[in-house]
Design brief:
There is one protein chain. This protein has about 425 residues and is an alpha/beta fold. It folds into three domains: about 90 residues, no CATH class; about 110 residues, no CATH class; about 200 residues, 3-Layer(aba) Sandwich (Dna Topoisomerase Vi A Subunit, Chain: A, domain 2). The protein is built from 23 helices and 14 strands. The strands form five sheets. The protein has a six-stranded mixed β-sheet with strand order 7-5-10-9-11-12, with helices on both faces. It has a two-stranded antiparallel sheet with strand order 1-2. Strands 3-4 form a two-stranded parallel sheet. Helix 10 packs across helix 11 and helix 19 runs antiparallel to helix 22. The longest helix has 22 residues. The termini are far apart.
Length: about 425
């Protein structure tokens, strides 16, 4: 790099080149002059010296003419036109916005034609925005569209198929439709477009669970064994209305067990073995204690997050008219999960233990980041929103372990009378 080239890398020349490029982009011309106010935040001495203007004259100047700039660059040791200078500094050619957009539009239309030639379903179901996102990836070929097209034609109709097995049958690669691959992302977009579910209902779930839900609708399973729910006291029937004896015997024995998603999907009906209520607790430690102390209460554990197995289980319970009682920690995350359940199940969802008096009993000072506190703004239910205000104002939270005895009394009030009546 010559000394002259190094000279024009100074900030004032960078600003000048950027402004000239912008002008050409919009109007196809550099204009007639440039106001010196453009350089108010940088040292203009290098530009003044380059143009050969005295300090006295420069201080009185308000604008510099573009023709002066062009002449100075041609006469300098660089021997560049003004256009050459702009390209050298910006490292990209001068182009008109209108020409660029026309070329982009033509290229995008060619991309859509190529995709439609593979399978017109893509261009009919995917939105313009989605197609543009794929086009911007500048894929070397359309092989993922070809693979997904074959996959859509081979979707299972009745029996569930594990996603890796499905991917292997379609592409020869069991990981071709993993969610972190382009093939997996395109497949999910197409399944969403083909889905019978309303878009609003899909947003109730976390993104991970939304993906599970779409796969499940089309008889594809991402993970049906390690995706499970801890339950006690729930009975099930299959699609022939036959009672599942394993579930029934677990209820008789009072056994807590982890039911895999695969078994949940095999059931048509899930309901409490006794009564018409079920308790959902956030904390696995609290769940373990309650299972021992309240042996007849139908209960399940969300383990601090809602897996697809939990959602499927809760939806099947809700379909039978079961009243769902939820108890979680009085912190941003616990209240957020409670709000999500309320949004999904409405009046069928009640809260237990999530009250201001329990917050006052068990409140403890913790470090609450701004991102955690921001979660409280999403609370819409009045009871939860009031708890959110307490957390925000006091910068304290309350964990279930701190109001366990109060929680047990509330559970007994809601459940034990019912179970006694059932027994008699």
């Amino acid at each position: 790099m010559s000394e002259a080239e190094a000279y024009i890398k100074q900030p004032v020349f960078q600003i000048l080149a950027k402004e000239l490029w912008r002008r050409y982009w919009l109007k196809g011309t550099f204009g007639s002059s440039i106001g010196l106010s453009l350089f108010s935040q940088t040292d203009t001495e290098p530009l003044r010296s380059f143009l050969g203007i005295t300090v006295f004259s420069w201080d009185r100047k308000k604008r510099i003419r573009v023709v002066e700039l062009d002449h100075a660059f041609v006469e300098s040791s660089l021997n560049l036109t003004l256009a050459d200078f702009v390209v050298l500094v910006m490292k990209k050619p001068l182009v008109l916005k209108i020409d660029y957009e026309r070329l982009e539009k033509d290229a995008f239309e060619q991309f859509k034609k190529a995709v439609a030639k593979v399978d017109s379903t893509f261009t009919s179901l995917l939105s313009e925005r989605q197609l543009k996102e794929w086009w911007k990836k500048q894929l070397p070929n359309l092989i993922i569209f070809e693979q997904v097209s074959v996959g859509l034609q081979c979707l299972p109709k009745k029996e569930f198929v594990r996603l890796p097995v499905f991917a292997y049958k379609v592409t020869g690669n069991p990981h071709a439709f993993d969610e972190n691959t382009e093939g997996g992302q395109l497949l999910l977009q197409m399944l969403a477009a083909l889905s019978n579910q309303e878009p609003n209902s899909l947003t109730e779930l976390e993104k991970t669970e939304q993906r599970h839900g779409l796969l499940n609708e089309f008889h594809l399973l991402k993970d049906d064994i390690m995706n499970y729910a801890a339950i006690r006291g729930l009975a099930a029937q299959d699609f022939e209305k036959r009672e599942n004896q394993m579930w029934r015997q677990a209820c008789i024995e009072g056994i807590s067990w982890n039911v895999p998603l695969k078994e949940i999907l095999r059931t048509a009906v899930i309901r409490p073995y006794v009564g018409e209520k079920v308790l959902v607790v956030e904390n696995s430690g609290i769940y373990s204690i309650l299972v021992e102390l309240l042996p007849k209460v139908p209960i399940l554990c969300s383990s601090g997050h809602f897996t697809f197995a939990i959602w499927q289980l809760l939806r099947k319970l809700a379909d039978t008219g079961t009243i769902i009682y939820y108890s979680g920690d009085l912190d941003p995350e616990g209240l957020g999960m409670a709000q999500k359940l309320k949004n999904t199940f409405g009046s069928q969802l009640q809260f237990l233990g999530m009250e201001q008096r329990n917050f006052q009993i068990a409140k403890t000072k913790v470090a609450l980041s701004s991102s955690r506190l921001k979660k409280l703004q999403a609370l819409e239910n009045y009871q939860l929103a009031e708890l959110g205000k307490l957390i925000d104002e006091s910068k304290q939270v309350a964990y279930q372990e701190g109001f366990l005895q109060e929680l047990i009394k509330e559970i007994e009030c809601e459940f034990v009378i019912e179970t006694v009546e059932q027994d008699t």
